[in-house]
Specification:
The complex is a heterodimer of chains A (608) and B (603).
Chain A lengths: L1 H15 L15 H12 L3 H33 L4 H50 L2 H6 L2 H43 L1 H8 L1 H39 L1 H6 L3 H26 L2 H25 L5 H43 L20 E9 L5 E10 L4 E5 L6 H8 L7 E6 L2 E2 L5 H6 L1 E4 L10 H6 L7 H10 L3 H6 L17 H15 L3 E5 L7 H15 L3 E5 L3 H6 L2 E6 L2 E6 L1 H7 L2 H10 L5
Helix pairs in contact in A: 1-6, 2-12, 3-4, 3-6, 3-12, 4-6, 4-12, 6-7, 6-12, 7-11, 8-10, 8-11, 11-12, 16-18, 18-19
Chain B lengths: L1 H5 L8 H33 L4 H50 L2 H6 L2 H23 L1 H19 L1 H6 L1 H41 L1 H6 L3 H53 L5 H42 L28 E10 L2 E11 L4 E6 L5 H8 L7 E6 L2 E2 L5 H5 L2 E4 L8 E2 H5 L8 H10 L3 H6 L7 E2 L8 H13 L5 E5 L7 H13 L8 E5 L3 H4 L4 E6 L2 E6 L1 H7 L1 H11 L3 H9 L11
Parallel strand pairs in B: 3-10, 3-11, 6-9, 9-10
Antiparallel strand pairs in B: 1-2, 1-4, 4-5, 7-8, 11-12
Helix pairs in contact in B: 2-3, 2-6, 2-11, 3-5, 5-6, 5-11, 6-11, 8-10, 8-11, 10-11, 15-17, 20-21
Classes of the chains: A alpha/beta (608), B alpha/beta (603).
Amino acid sequence: MSQQTSAQQQARAVIAARGPIRPTPIEKAANPRHTLARLLPYLAPYKARLLLVAVLILAITFLDLLGPYLMGQAIDRYIGSRELAGLVRVSLLMLLVYLSNNTFQAISSWTMAGVSQNALKDLRHDLFSHLQSLSLKFFDAHPAGEMMSRLTNDIEAVNQAISQNVIAMVGSLLSLVGFVVAMFVLNFWLALASVIVVPIMLWFTNFIARSTRKGFRDLQKSLGEINGVMEESISGQRVVKAFRRNEASIHIFQQVNQDVFKAGVYANTYAMMLMPLTNQLGNLFVIVLAGFGGWLALQGLVTVGIIATFMSYAHGFIQPLRQLANIYNAIQAALAGAERVFETIDTSPEMEDRPQAVRLEQVQGHVEFQNVDFAYEPGNPIIKKMSFEALPGQTIALVGPTGAGKTTLTNLLTRFYDIDGGAIRIDGHDLRDIRRADLRRQLGLVLQDTFMFADSVMENIRYGRLEASDEQVIEAARLADADHFIAQLPHGYQTLLSERASNLSQGQSQMLAIARAVLADPAILILDEATSSVDTRTEVRIQKALLKLMKGRTSFVIAHRLSTIRDADQVLVIQDGEIIERGKHQELLDQRGFFYQLYISQFKGQAI
Amino acid sequence: MKNIQKLFPFLKPYWKPASASLLLLTAVVFMDLSIPRLVQRIIDDGIHAGNYQVVYETAAIMLGISITSTLFALGNNYLSILSGESVARDLREALFVRIQAFSYGNLDKLNTGQLMVRLSSDTTIVQRLTQVFLRIGTRAPLLMAGSLILMYSTDARLATVMLPILILSGILIVFFTAKMGPLFLTVQQKLDRLNSILQENIAGVRVVKAFVRDQRETERFESANQDFAARNIRVMQFMSAMTPSLTLMVNFGIVTVIWFGGIQAINAEITIGQLVAFINYLQTILGPLGIMVMLSNIIAAATASAQRINEVLDTVPEVADAPQAIAFPQSFGGIDRQKPRVEFENVGFHYNDGAVLEGINLRAQPGQTVAILGATGSGKSTLVNLIARFYDVTRGQVRIDGIDVRELSQSSLLAQIGIVPQETVLFSGTVRDNIRYGKTDAGDEEVVAAARAAQAHDFISKLPDGYETHVSQRGVNLSGGQKQRIAIARALLLRPAILILDDSTSAVDVETETKIHAALAEWGQNQRPTTIFMVAQRISTVLNADKIIVIDNGRITAEGTHAELIKTSPIYQEIFASQLGGTESEFARLRLAGQKPAPGRLA
């Protein structure tokens, strides 16, 4: 049993080694008991199987003890007394014991594989689906890397614990107790001598664990440093080269590299010391048995068969002792990981729909902001007492400096965030009284930073309306003027986009995003116009597609283009979270106010 | 395997600790193997012979051996780790130094993520292999071989009876070894898929929410989740057969010893001590059996890593100095050649997948400003990258001051050139450090002057710590326009003879941009104006250039000043129209009204 888990752990380590450097710091959960209580329900559906495993472990422990005992009996009773029939009988019995022992082991780990992986699957599912319900505020506060780590590393830690360590721990403890009891039953004095090994072992383990912990803390720190240096210097390699800083960059690298080396030697020397030391302790055990046992035998206090049995036990006895410390740490890490996972699962989801939330089938697109207040963090208001109204079909241009609150405004309309004061109404319904899913179904977003999935062009457009047929998707692409370039892609609509659509140009991604919005057919549109990333002629094409899309819909446009502003029904000039000017383009120019200045500075170059 | 062999030279400098570690290990194995023999002696010559002396003596010898072997084992532990870590350190450094020598063409093929994996996890895996082979990897087979030999020497007949079991064990090891690698690989693939869905979901959270697709995303994740779990269960269930079946082999061995050995002992052909020693040797084999399977796995992983490492180490920088490269003349020759003239003569440039630039002929007189316009992907950036020889031309020549850039040492060439790349990269450190990046010994006045010219001084002064403000990694606490201006100051500080601006004012408002351009005209080496190449998107940026070239599909389709091109070039007209719409009349009206444009902020 114990060898089995160590073999699996090594196999895991090989898999894990394919990932980035990740020394496992030893950490503890703040509330282990609570976390454990949360984990148990995931195992509850497999009660019967777990019971089977528990029974098997008991049986295995018993058989582990029985095998060597029979061997000792064979030596003392049959070989010593030259009883051939008895020898054959006991040999067959041993065969049966070993065979069933190994079969039970195979069955128990076979069973545990299913139990643990299914439980983990459920845990991953719960975490992921809960993640879907969390608000953008949560994603703002938790960087993507952190979330990834929660779904991968933390879950993997739990995996290790459930699939191997808990079983190993129970098995090890049971065998340990079993060995000690069996030894004392067989021979008191020899057992007493053997048990001396235990405190020595525990002391070593403790000492090594402490030094290892310190070593890995330091190692992790230097690894963090070297990763930072590498990341920065490699991603900025072109600049490093252009400014001839290669030598300096190598020099810095050498320094941190040396730190990693030193920390690595220290941490690993301690971490890997346990293995050879336990081997040596195994020898010590045998020496105690042979030396002291030999003396006892000469006194007639013990038989050779018992000594042989004890020696056989020695192999099984040292292993659990060695593993206990590792297993304990692994379980601690798992609990800490599980705690973080549950912390995420316990984060309250995006504002819940009110129970009396209305269903919204088809809206006209009448949008009203009334005295809206909003702050991402308390005390730092982004939107202040903002009021305006958009009639169905109108185009509202939002203009203003970076950080004025334009994007925030659109985030409030989509209800990515809830407002702090005032009200936003669509067709007279307060946003908070509309079911969120219904609301968003009425809204179409085309953002500057378009997001495409690693899937076919067809599926990416269909994302706008999942039930759309292929023909409808193609029709939408045609309306968005994307049909032409899609036809030129290697596999047309079936072309697979690479991760983050790196095989498309920015302009092409924009076109797909527009097609997606066309397909969704929303009553209200939110557009963030592209700036410098798209060349101007492509931009004209995008603009044309957008104009088509905007027809008949209420549109909010974060405007960078003169023509958009000129054609808008209303221009809202926003600064520091307030609408400081509003009206039609020409009216605003005539006011000679902020918009006029903005206009002059922004578009001056366009006049000759 | 060949890939791993290629990395042997990295172990060579550490042959002393490595071989010492192996030597100690061998000694440890010998000592470990002697223990069962000594136990046998205690049983046969001590207990059975009733001889206390033998028991005491042998026990003392065993204790001595055990202490020595413990010390040796600790020595092996330290030396093997020292060697492994040394190899890893040297590998990392070799990789890093090699990457530093990469030219742009090499970097296009390997992205940062890939290089990071090679530097971090791949070196770690090779390190693990080194360590494993200096300890358990050698110990396990030695122990097995030693046990077998000693079993034979204890009793050849009994050992021979065991032969079928040993052969069966060997077959099992080969079987599991062959199966396990591919199985783990499939698990890894499923896991990668799961992770990429996750990554995508988190990165695209706004889109997912906007289209209310959480249901669909959950389903998508769930199917990958199911896949992964199912595959993982299969692999783990396969694994669950492995250890028990190997243990079973050893157990069969023990039963055989008891059975046949017992008969032999009854017939007084062997002693009980030998029997016990035999069983001890068998149990010694048990541990190494499982480890043999793991070893092959580690080797497989290390082979893949070694291959990736070699890929980097074997990459030859595409651009390298010619053997007889000359340094760029420090002062530009005689009276006629005060400032560098840049010429493209019939230049063609190809990537692997096709032509990027074709038939480029271009001449920039000293102090001139050449603007380059064109659609995304038309080859603008590539063109300016050829000046600094970040790529080598496929055809034709790029000459500076009459000298082909390929004849110059790249270092001396780059010393003359200031570059502001399209993607602004700042490094962690203070604002001052970043501006001084190309010239670390620059004085404060120089830094401030460069910042002023780049119109960065004002906003830097308003930062919490002014020039000492810390720029976090990749400059996230500054706006795009601010980062660009720091990057411009960084290039200006060099007082370069040639300045390359690759669409580097895209996030700066027009007003500020105009000021920057005005300052540039006065900038340069020893007060001589700089020759400027600028790639641009906005017409406003290029209006005052001495020469505007329009690139379309890798060819120059128009060349001239604004006044000329607006009359002659249809593409230029199209670009012009696309940016201005029909606003001239509007502006003309404003101008007639006598309004002076006031400074303002840009959206």
